[in-house]
Automatic annotation (TrEMBL):
Belongs to the short-chain dehydrogenases/reductases (SDR) family. Gene3D superfamilies: NAD(P)-binding Rossmann-like Domain. Pfam families: adh_short (PF00106). It is an enzyme of class 1 (oxidoreductase). InterPro entries: NAD(P)-bd_dom_sf (IPR036291), Sc_DH/Rdtase_CS (IPR020904), SDR_fam (IPR002347). This is Oxidoreductase. PANTHER family: DEHYDROGENASE/REDUCTASE SDR FAMILY MEMBER 11 (PTHR43115), DEHYDROGENASE_REDUCTASE SDR FAMILY MEMBER 11 (PTHR43115:SF4). SUPFAM superfamilies: NAD(P)-binding Rossmann-fold domains (SSF51735). GO terms for molecular function: oxidoreductase activity, acting on the CH-OH group of donors, NAD or NADP as acceptor.
Length: 244
């Protein structure tokens, strides 16, 4: 059941996170949207509220553990519990290793891995206390296999899958916290704008014949959230039909 669940979503200012917030709010969840671009968050919250839904937003940069903890505090203060935490914020500045884009490697590790860990760290004590919760981490098909110019990005997404599996093993049986990995193939979003290596962009466009829409991934997340408490959806992999 999605109705009345309190759901925190990072990276909710665009793409998959925004579509997920809209879908879950439509299904009756109380959603807390987070990202850095508050103008976008505010617009989406207005859209939800105008359609009769319940939503609020909180600005947080996931590279800051203080910001992520403040996001959890805000959700608790506003709604009194957190049923689902979606770690979705991410970047994909693909590049060939010999371009040595070390700053981009660092940002990817900070946002895609450490940002997810900070979300988990903020959610665990609350969910342990509730003896109920669900943490959903957005990995990728790139978390299953490495593509050209994707060594570091894939590294971060493999890490997200490993961390989520560890979370499931440790906290599902003892604390009733479910853990779900969402692994999309190519989705048409703003994510490609983070690529500064033109050769990597050309390589990606050459192998991308079609893309999913953010709504396709929102539907997958809604499915995982909607399952009864005894059923834990561990991973959903979803590709465009024509993606090899
Ligand atoms: P978008 O670029 O549309 O969304 C990325 C979101 O992450 C934005 O809301 C952005 O918000 C947020 N974000 C980025 N950096 C930070 C930060 N430091 N702190 C807080 N929020 C941040 O891309 P997608 O919707 O495609 O990406 C969502 C997730 O899906 C990512 O984890 C991505 O790796 C994953 N994914 C995407 C695929 C695709 O093909 N699009 C395929 C597989 C996985 P803001 O800038 O406002 O902070």
């Amino acid at each position: 059941m999605i109705q009345d669940k309190v759901v925190v979503i990072t990276g909710a200012s665009s793409g998959i996170g925004q579509a997920t917030a809209l879908q879950l709010a439509k299904d009756g969840a109380k959603v807390v949207l987070s990202a850095r671009r508050t103008d976008r968050l505010e617009k989406t919250v207005q859209e939800i509220v105008q359609s009769g839904g319940i939503a609020s937003y909180f600005a947080a940069d996931v590279i800051s553990k203080t910001d992520v903890q403040a996001l959890a505090d805000f959700a608790m203060h506003t709604y009194g519990r957190i049923d689902v935490w979606v770690n979705n914020a991410g970047l994909m500045p693909l590049s060939y290793l010999n371009k040595r884009k070390i700053d981009e490697w660092e940002t990817m590790v900070d946002v895609n891995i450490k940002g997810v860990l900070y979300g988990i760290a903020a959610a665990i004590p609350i969910m342990e206390q509730q003896h109920s919760g669900h943490i959903i981490n957005v990995s990728s098909v790139a978390g299953h296999r490495v593509g050209m110019a994707g060594a570091v990005y894939s590294g971060t997404k493999f890490a997200v899958r490993a961390i989520t599996e560890g979370l499931r093993m440790e906290l599902s049986p003892t604390a009733n916290i479910r853990a779900t990995i969402i692994s999309p193939g190519l989705v048409e979003t703003e994510l490609l704008t983070t690529i500064t290596d033109e050769d990597a962009l050309i390589a990606l466009k050459a192998r991308a014949s079609s893309a999913l829409q953010s709504q396709d991934i929102a539907n997958a997340i809604a499915y995982a959230v909607d399952q009864p408490e005894w059923a834990s959806v561990n991973e959903i992999v979803i590709r465009p039909t024509t993606q090899p």
